[in-house]
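Crash report, auto-generated. Payload:
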Amino acid sequence: MSTRTAERAEPGRRSNAGHNIGRKVLTGALGFFGQSPAWPLLVLLIIFFMLATPNFMTWFNVSNLLTQAVIIGILAVGLTPVFISGAVDLSVGSVAGFTACLLVTIQPYIGLYPACAFALLAGLSIGLFNGLLVEIFGLNPIIVTLAIMLGVRSLTFLLFGSATISPTDDRLLDLVGTKVGPFTFDVLVFLAVALAVGLMLRSTVHGINTYAIGGSRPAAEDAGVNVTKHVVFNFALCGTLAGLVGVTLVGQLGAAAPVYGQGYELLAIIAVVLGGTKLAGGSGTVVGTLVATGALTVLQNGVNLLNVDVRYVTIIVGVVLVLTLTLDRLISGGPGSSE
Amino acid sequence: MRYELLSKISKILGAMLAAAVLTASVAQAEDLPDWLQGQKLAKPLNEVHVGFSIRGLLGGGDLYTAQYVNKVKELAQKYGVKLTSIDAQDDPAKQNQDVANLMAQGVDVVCVWATNAKAIVPALKKAHDAGFKVVTFNAVVDEAGQKYVDAYVGPNDYNQSKLATQQMFDAMGGKGNIVMIRAQLGFSPSDLRAQAVFDLVKANPGITLLDTQEGRWSQVIAQQIMENFITRFGNKIDGVVGADGYTSTGSYLAIEAARKSGKLDPNHVIYFADPNVVSTSYDLMKEGKFPGGSTIQDPAREGELAFQTAVKVAEGIQLPKETFLPTPIINQSNVNQYPRPTN
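Recovered output after restart:
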């Protein structure tokens, strides 16, 4: 009897369970999409450019899009934990330029791969320095990283001169251009970095504490969180990834110049904010940052393919960004707002 | 009878057809611009698609670039050539992506105004290896990239800088102290122009280069730098080498202000040189306020040459590897021979 009841009850339970699962999926999807105003923007842009130009959805162009997302994408992924913890780092573009020149300059003396490691170490050191200045001396991260941005750029010119430097070893150029399935090597590195940082934020104590610090620093301190350690770690990680961008630039361009990376910090910050990370800290995801990077890349690529007059491209990009964030704010009052 | 009639009709039709073909080809030949007359074209002009990657119309670009691009667009419209132009915003990494975007559109020729002579090489290689024809313009690319380039069209920056600066050294009697306000580091036209000055200074022991600063082709920045030079060196400055006419104009304004305020001796002559006269520096020459010299680099003429070269390469016409833009000398003694520059 009980078995039959159980059997009779089963379909109903299945129905309820199915309904619940459906609702959960829908809610989850809405929540997932709602985390970043860049999702609808990315979807709309892809549909629009697919209809507008036959060159958009070709294998060649999709491969272009992925490669074109790498540089700003890695910087933005590195900036995401810094933003979530309530800070900011304006020096990443300069660090990328510095590490690119450093790598090419020292590579003939110590070899290619040690030079790459040294470039990453340099990025880490600058990030660490940023973090320590902010945390130990209690200085405003905007002022600190602005000063470091200017200082590192000048140091790059002073140390490496004005000319573009070519590496004596072209293996990095070959490596970055190597195809692994549909992806070039730099795209795989970018995706691996994004996955690692995403998992760090989602599944580690450090990640959880990063959100807690950004949400309320005094509350995190009261709860016994070592705020300094976590904030400094995020700056160091950000600097290391800026160093990785320097290495990637050398791999993509086969040379290094002191002007590399100028203005990249702003593009990366746009990607982070558009991805739903609050400027005030406490919320945001790497997925959102990735989607926003994708949307920005598609927008830039698409207007190029549509042969939009170069003088309108930047205006279009700016208007789309402002509209997206404004609409997100009006509709959801949500995370896209840069509170 | 019927056969004869048919034969006559077919002859008349044949003659009409031949006449039509002849008329059409004559008309097509007449429609062709002078610079394509007598050339065998791979395809009609309205089927040609040229792609231009511009170094920086927005990011640090100037009126020169704008007028250059306007000329290219005007000619493309006039001849029905499809034109795609993308702005690299002075970012070498973006320019590499722009070249890939031009390739994605299947252009007949990839034309590149390189923002960085070395960093553009992988993009040129990629285009060349994929079977695209490649033209570089205005800025020469690194030697490693030359083998991927079908044609270069533009000025010889080193020579024109040397021509302009030599006029100033001659006017100074081969002795005195100079300062230089060059354009941005790492951009080949800027580097070549500066290098010409360094080499000339070495070859003229009577000339001392007091300092060199980066003015980024900007009149405003040049004016600020010149003010600082005046504060540091005062009346020791006998000459100023600028990156272009905008830079010289900024320097002139700083010098005039310093003379009026008493920081500089109003009777002390300061000479000017730059490799590219613009409307404001041209006016100064006409008024006798620009002792020294410059050269003429016309953006519209350069844009026209670039467009013609791009189309010719797209049409499979063999060209010399390098076509240099004529850059005649201009100074206070011959300024009236030339019209006022439009930029």
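Post-recovery validation: Chain A is about 75% helix and 0% strand.
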